[in-house]
């Protein structure tokens, strides 16, 4: 993928959900008592996210005033890779669904979601969307099937305070994985904390191995003749795992807790127990709000270090309309997507209003960088509009903002990525827990298993 040369947007995240918890079944849509269309939408923040939930409720109120006859019912349902497909196939999902960037291509190919190009084109600013952002949400004919929210690119999150205690310069974070290894060892030896932590369970080990492979110049999936194939055994992926193995068994710099999901890592990072991990700037908000990080000044983030590649993984939340939504609700759904997600990322007035509302809560985080959904000129205007309400130390995000434009942005594997991640979880876990783990054999077995499943799915 060609590099995106735009600078990262300096816009506060409205709501970021990380935990992959279970999805409750929903009943079919019904019309309201007055004949209103009742639109059920995923993406409502949980009660623990007070500023995000307050903003969501205001959006619903404003939307209903602007669209008489439509009533919005918010849902806190979050994506669960173990149950999502069955619920979607059975039609027991909301009228607007929220999925990670791993899912759109599979859902499009399996015709489980609806194209929304026609309705989106009615919006005045449709042509100003960043084409790189829409590409993973489109089919081969160019039809668009979703709207993104808070797209991100992975980087290296680090604790500036632990860097200082280890004799490292927090304003000059590692740019290569050799430097990461050296810094992790120094942090571990001089502070007693985990120098670097690798996620390893609930599909997040495979997800993080993917971004690490990108940094080493590799790919985990290829496409030929319209068919997707897993490619786990490449040299880049073997080197990436070799690095983790050395850091675990030679340096002892990965800490004592080796089986972690993302929430585990962020919780320990917020408590000052982790020196570095792979994450996005949005981690700041989670550490502060969800895990009560007191010393937020210790938060730092840099572009993903490289080791032979020149890429970082990009992702984000995608809102789509399932096939189960009838014509009336599908039209209402696109109105909601434009109003709630596209417009706030384009309109300076909407962005400023959201930033002002969020900044009123001391636990909020306004100004955390995301990737631009529209062009650089528009993003500069957004940045200026929210500047009075920014309440994070932008200097601590500067390495990330300055360095991101130098990297290629690569999406997650486009077809059934969760299948890949499940298989790679076991590989990562073996490398972290078994000194004699045979990396080539582990990758070969995982590749064979996944390719059998992909072949069956693509018949």
TrEMBL record:
<dbReference type="InterPro" id="IPR050490">
    <property type="entry name" value="Bact_solute-bd_prot1"/>
</dbReference>
<dbReference type="InterPro" id="IPR006059">
    <property type="entry name" value="SBP"/>
</dbReference>
<keyword id="KW-0732">Signal</keyword>
<feature type="signal peptide">
    <location>
        <begin position="1"/>
        <end position="24"/>
    </location>
</feature>
<protein>
    <submittedName>
        <fullName>Extracellular solute-binding protein</fullName>
    </submittedName>
</protein>
<dbReference type="Pfam" id="PF01547">
    <property type="entry name" value="SBP_bac_1"/>
</dbReference>
């Amino acid at each position: 993928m060609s590099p995106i040369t735009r600078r990262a947007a300096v816009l506060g995240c409205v709501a970021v959900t990380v935990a992959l918890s279970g999805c409750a079944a929903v009943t079919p849509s019904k019309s309201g008592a007055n004949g209103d269309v009742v639109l059920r939408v995923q993406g409502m923040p949980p009660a623990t996210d007070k500023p995000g939930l307050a903003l969501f409720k205001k959006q619903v109120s404003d939307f209903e005033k602007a669209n008489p006859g439509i009533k919005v019912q918010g849902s806190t349902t979050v994506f669960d890779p173990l149950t999502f497909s069955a619920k979607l196939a059975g039609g027991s999902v909301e009228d607007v669904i929220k999925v990670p960037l791993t899912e759109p291509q599979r859902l499009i190919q399996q015709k489980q979601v609806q194209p929304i190009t026609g309705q989106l084109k009615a919006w005045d600013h449709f042509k100003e969307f960043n084409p790189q952002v829409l590409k993973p949400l489109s089919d081969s004919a160019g039809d668009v099937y979703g709207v993104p929210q808070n797209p991100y690119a992975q980087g290296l999150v680090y604790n500036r305070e632990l860097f200082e205690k280890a004799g490292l310069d927090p304003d000059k974070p590692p740019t290569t994985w050799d430097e990461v290894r050296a810094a992790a060892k120094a942090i571990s030896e001089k502070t007693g904390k985990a120098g670097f932590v690798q996620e390893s369970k609930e599909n997040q080990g495979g997800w993080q191995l993917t971004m690490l492979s990108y940094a080493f110049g590799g790919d985990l999936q290829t496409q030929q003749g319209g068919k997707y194939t897993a490619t786990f055994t490449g040299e880049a992926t073997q080197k990436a795992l070799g690095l983790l193995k050395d850091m675990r068994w030679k340096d002892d710099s990965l800490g004592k807790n080796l089986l972690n999901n993302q929430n585990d890592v962020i919780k320990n990072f917020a408590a000052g127990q982790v020196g570095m991990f792979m994450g996005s700037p949005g981690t700041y908000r989670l550490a502060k709000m969800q895990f009560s990080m007191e010393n937020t000044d210790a938060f730092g983030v840099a572009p993903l270090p490289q080791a032979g590649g020149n890429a970082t993984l990009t992702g984000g939340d995608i809102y789509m309309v399932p096939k189960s939504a009838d014509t009336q609700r599908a039209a209402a759904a696109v109105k909601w997507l434009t109003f709630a997600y596209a417009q706030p990322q384009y309109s300076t007035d909407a962005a400023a209003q959201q930033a002002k509302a969020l900044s009123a809560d001391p636990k909020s985080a306004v100004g955390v960088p995301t990737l631009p959904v529209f062009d650089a000129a528009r993003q500069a205007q957004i940045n200026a509009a929210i500047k009075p309400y920014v309440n994070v130390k932008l200097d601590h995000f500067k390495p990330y903002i300055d360095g991101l434009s130098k990297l290629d942005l690569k999406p997650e594997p486009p077809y059934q990525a969760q299948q890949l991640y499940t298989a790679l979880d076991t590989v990562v876990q073996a490398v972290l827990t078994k000194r004699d783990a045979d990396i080539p054999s582990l990758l070969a077995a995982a590749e064979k298993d996944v390719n059998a499943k992909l072949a069956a799915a693509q018949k």
